[in-house]
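pinging the channel bc i need a second pair of eyes. not urgent but kinda urgent?? the chain im working w is below, pasted from the shared doc
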Amino acid sequence: MELPAYWLPRPTLALDEATQERLEALYAHAVAPGRGDWIRKKLPVPAWQLLCWLADHKGHLLHGTGDPRIACFEPRQSHDVGEFGNRRAVYAASDGIWAMFFAVIDRVNYPMSISNAAIRLELPSGQTTEPYYFFSMTDHVLSRRPWREGVVYVLPRDGFEEEGPIERGMIRVHTHHWANPRPVRPLARLRVQPGDFPFLHKIRPHNDAVLFERAKADPNGFPWMD
């Protein structure tokens, strides 16, 4: 199945045996102890690749933010178009690139609306595609380059619920979206820079009024493009 061009495929993530061994050593030192400490050791791969590896191969969830001081995540009421994301919970992603998006955009100093997703498609054959992404934000804010240094927290999956797949004809869409109604203590944390985000220059602009009107008229029409 071919998606519209505004859906961005994940860059190639091919790790040779030596690199995987270095990742395992890093994991044993910085994440497995579960103390919530900083990952300070020099990374053997770009930050997004480490985060995706932690989600794909170690089963961890990730949360991106600008706050480097969180010792325990407390459930908060979210406001989302979808039912799953519109409740009091700790939210996390099973995808490193998606989590990094929330770490490097500065919504404190630059009020904005955002529209974003990370998905995999389950085809009628049962095969599941690699991840695809969509990112957009308020047009006049995007032009101001609202970036910041941020933090991606590595979280345990225990206690989290995964958003169910969305049926689109013969295709099932899996969203990488998870929620936990209880407090969550991080296992580790990684500082990231805007330049670490592989789609920094592919974030799309949108007009808030147009986006809100389209979402109201068709709540299931994400991402409400032309």
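so The first strand starts at residue 8 and ends at 9. and Helices lie at 17-30, 47-58, 96-104, 139-142, 208-217. — does that match what u expected or am i reading it wrong
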